[in-house]
Amino acid sequence: MGSDTTLFEADLAGLDALELVAQAELGRWRHIWSLTWPKLAAAAVALAVWQLVVASHWRPSYLLPGPGTVFRELGHQAATGTFWRAISITMRRALVGYSLAVVIGSAIGVAVATVKPLRVAIGSLITGLQTMPSIAWFPLAILLFQLRESAILFVVVLGAAPSVANGLLAGVDHVPPVLVRSGRVMGAKGLALYRHVVLPASLPAFVSGLKQGWAFAWRSLMAGELLVIVAHRPSIGTRLQFARENTDAPAVVALMIVILVIGIVVDGVFSRADSAMRHRRGLVDRAA
Amino acid sequence: MTLLEDHPVQLSSTAVAVDGVSKVFGRGPSAVLALDRLWVDVAVGEFVCLVGSSGCGKSTLLSLVAGLDRPTAGSVEVGDRRVALLFQESALFPWLTAAGNIELPLQLRGVGKAERRQRAEELLERVHLGGLGARRPHELSGGMRQRVALARALAQEADVLLMDEPFGALDAMTRDLLHDELEEIWQNSGLTVLFVTHNVRESVRLADRVVLLTSRPGRVAASFIIDIPRPRRIESAEVAGPAALITDRLREEVRRHGI
């Protein structure tokens, strides 16, 4: 038996060595470059098209300024304190509103996922709320809260929370039953089953919900800042509105670029978190 | 090999007692009788294989023994024994490393972090996967995943190990090596094993006793005591003989449904 065992161990070791996948990594810089150059190229093409449209004099240049004018304006703005104060107020609103939406959305998601009657009652309502344009909430929000911060926050939360709840709900629904059975056999019940099995298993869909929730929160916030102008509280939306009223086209476009860039940066953070998680779980095709 | 018709004699110390268990899924005219008055006793330390074709309710029976489901009639007794269940797909948690998967049942029982880590490393060694604890399930081969799942089941310190076609999806060489591995662990641990398979040779290779089930509804058709000395080889004539006999009985059983 002794020699049999060692033979068996040797066989097993050999098979294991053959089966372990070599983890070839693309060089770090090459990887970063392969992700960067297409973006730079796209930006260059966009700028060129923009410049061409301006050069065609389709609209007078005081209404449609070229990239040069806009970036000079952006530089002037960035040199002022109010510009940064506006960004910080906007970002604070985004952060507070989004955090509230995540907490409320998650709580609703868990409640609806676990309580069956609740799901029948409001499951489709959540999806309905998700499709409702957030700007439609503003008349009511302004009646309820007047032109104050809370009116904006109210709409940001209403815009983002359904996506968060729906993401969590979708995640819980798609947990493979075998994982739940596996957890139950291990002795995980009730809250422990949720904490150790159901929630981690639903994380990919939850992150998608979070990402979508952020997109809705950001849109709602921008709509809100255009409509609800709170005195002595400069914000990106307020500045955009003032720039339009002054027919200051370079400032309008410059601020739009700021909004776009913030959106892209935050989305990039979510995408990175999402792809890191998918890689860890083996949900990414190696060849891709 | 001894052929026992009907259910076997009452054994002195029974680990799993399935007494006249019936299981019905659904209600009314569409109800399906999955198990029909099934009697199976598994002695402490015994290795029993359940063999049957599709629709014999093998997986249903394991769910009942694992306590994941309740029988419609009859009773399943495991006493105060701890039961672990292994699935065909390893059912490892993809968000945890191999070691993390093995630690989870320990964590659920309140074992401290340092001890958990040490136990996981020991169990990985035991299934010959020492040093691979940091790997994620998707970075391991199918056979390795099943060994991690086995280590995770051992971490539950179960007395009874239920296995639901655990090697069904593996290639032949890996499967043969895992037979050796499972046998070694079983012999050194005093575990009671209830192993479901549709592979008759596999059952003869592993079991002390093979229980043949009928299909739709599942009922015990025959029991075979396999007294071939261990270690056994799946390719050997001693295994092939009884396997042919059991396969004939199984075919007979399947044929009934075609008429």
Note the main attributes of this structure:
heterodimer, A: 288 residues, mainly alpha, MetI-like fold, 11 helices, B: 259 residues, alpha/beta, Rossmann fold, 2 domains, seven-stranded mixed β-sheet, three-stranded antiparallel β-sheet, 7 helices, 25% strand
Structure, described:
The complex is a heterodimer of chains A (288) and B (259). Chain A has 288 residues and is mostly helical. Chain A has a domain at 89-231: MetI-like fold, CATH 1.10.3720.10. Helices cover 80% and strands 0% of the residues of chain A. Chain A contains eleven helices and no strands. Chain A has helices spanning 2-19, 28-55, 67-78, 81-114, 116-131, 138-145, 149-173, 177-185, 190-227, 236-245, 249-280. In chain A, α4 (81-114) packs antiparallel against α5 (116-131), α4 packs across α10 (236-245) and α5 packs across α7 (149-173). The longest helix of chain A is centred in the C-terminal third of the chain and has 38 residues, at 190-227. In chain B, a hairpin with a 6-residue loop joins β2 (14-25) and β3. The longest helix of chain B has 22 residues, at 237-258. The radius of gyration of chain B is 18 Å and the shape is globular. By secondary structure, chain B is an alpha/beta fold. Helices cover 37% and strands 25% of the residues of chain B. A seven-stranded mixed sheet of chain B has the order 1-10-9-4-8-7-6, with helices on both faces. Chain B is built from seven helices and ten strands. Chain B folds into two domains: 2-81 and 159-258, Rossmann fold (3-Layer(aba) Sandwich); 93-157, no CATH class. The chains are: A mainly alpha (288), B alpha/beta (259). The interface between A and B is large, with 35 and 37 residues.
